[in-house]
Specification:
By secondary structure, the chain is α/β, with parallel strands linked by helices. It has 2 domains: 266 residues, TIM Barrel; 75 residues, Arc Repressor Mutant, subunit A (Orthogonal Bundle). 42% of the residues lie in helices and 22% in strands. It has 15 helices and 17 strands. It has a 9-stranded mixed beta sheet, sandwiched between helices. Strand 5, helix 3 and strand 6 form a beta-alpha-beta unit. Helix 6 runs parallel beside helix 8 and helix 11 runs antiparallel to helix 15. The longest helix has 18 residues. The two termini are 29 Å apart.
């Protein structure tokens, strides 16, 4: 079983903190100027055509493909896609792959790009899980992040999604935004609970090199929250979400029940296979990781020449795969130790038992005789725990 990831590389305006590959798409306003979008080389219709070429070329050159249980449209801003193009892509995927009838089909969406009609069309096209990038319900924080939406638009988008028939909605929130306090974070969480989404992702703001946000930080244009402040807000988020009935099943992800855990991401975290299409998209199939060109022109050029737009690939060594499974597992729902023993001939307690037992005694890890997992306390320092365990192997 595997998932499919589709990367839509366009944004109305690129957020200052984002280092994912995307291009600003000014074409969405060109209809008002009576300019045909089809003549724009960065238009969504042109991109959709090339994306379809890539998918068809991939299936023509690969045999015995895995059963697909999830599809995830990420970006960029996938909700810029007109519903007709999204529907065509989903239909193409169904024609090219063996996809389960109950497959989870997720779409990331910016509240500023959603209309009631578009949401109804997305639902009719087969999207059954919506991930709305709210980030905050505080206007000043949204302005700092340079989001294109305001708090009112989050609520409108959520309400319209419910009316369109979406019963599995996730909201993204962000903490450690400069100027944020526990009170403003509490306000965003309270507004989120009023909407009552089935899933919440809550991330700490990361300063990725070469982003405008990172450059502004280096130039002293604002003060970054320190590690103690970040830890306090993370702990507050975890505790508040838990009290509201959400289950933490990964460092940054919470669900109302097992039913609403993101199936696509669970596949990543368990070391499963995934196919990926679109510029910069990464895939993992039969032990090999491959990644596409991180440039729209090079992506188009490869496909024009009848070649898959792969920039490079690597075959993971057994140790690489083991380290990745440990890293992903301890950040999520844990490691089944018998699986490590059967696949890698590794008894984790024999190589790192003293350290693991200390983490169990100190309530950072929990072991039920089958699965070794992080506790809520352990999630706060899981990167350090993972590093120490991997170093012992």
């Amino acid at each position: 079983m595997a998932g499919i990831y589709i990367h839509i590389p366009f944004c109305e305006r690129k957020c200052r903190y984002c280092d994912f590959y995307s291009e600003e798409f000014s074409g969405i306003n060109r209809r008002k100027q009576n300019i045909d979008l089809l003549i724009n080389p960065n238009s969504l219709s042109v991109f959709s055509d090339f994306l379809s070429r890539e998918i068809a070329l991939f299936t023509a050159t690969h045999k015995e493909l895995p059963l697909i249980t999830s599809i995830f449209f990420g970006g960029g801003t996938p909700s810029l896609l007109p519903s007709g193009q999204l529907s065509s892509i989903i239909k193409l995927l169904h024609s090219q792959f063996n996809i389960t009838d109950d497959a989870e089909i997720s779409l990331e969406a910016n509240p500023g790009t959603l209309s009631s009609a578009k949401l109804k069309s997305y639902r009719a096209a087969g999207v059954n899980r919506l991930s709305i990038g709210a980030q905050s319900f505080v206007a000043s924080e949204l302005n700092f992040l340079e989001r294109i939406h305001n708090p009112r638009q989050i609520e409108e988008a959520f309400s319209n999604a419910r009316n369109a028939g979406f019963d599995n909605i996730s909201l993204d929130l962000m903490f450690s935004v400069p100027g944020q306090s526990k009170d403003t974070l509490a306000f965003s969480l309270e507004r989120t609970f009023e909407l009552y989404p089935e899933h919440i992702s809550s991330y700490s703001l990361i300063y990725e090199p070469e982003t405008p946000l990172y450059n502004d930080l280096q130039n002293g244009k604002f003060r970054k929250l320190n590690e103690e402040e970040d830890a306090e807000l993370y702990e507050y988020t975890m505790d508040t979400l838990r009290q509201a009935g959400y289950i933490q099943y990964e460092v940054s992800n919470y669900a109302l029940s097992d039913k609403y855990k993101c199936r696509h991401n669970l596949n990543y975290w368990s070391g499963g296979e995934y196919l990926a299409f679109g510029p910069s998209a990464h895939s993992y199939l039969r032990g090999r990781r491959a990644w596409n060109e991180r440039d729209l022109n090079r992506y188009y050029e490869s496909l024009k020449n009848g070649k898959l737009p792969i920039e490079d690939s690597e075959l993971l060594s057994k140790l690489d795969k083991l380290n990745e499974i440990i890293m992903l597992g301890l950040r999520a729902e844990g490691l089944i130790l018998s699986d490590l023993k059967s696949e890698f001939s590794l008894d984790l307690f024999s190589v790192a038992g003293t350290y693991i037992q200390q983490m169990i005694d100190d309530d950072f890890l929990i072991y039920d005789g089958k699965t070794l997992a992080a506790t809520s306390k352990g999630y706060r320092v899981c990167d350090e725990i993972i590093l120490n365990i991997i170093s012992a192997i």
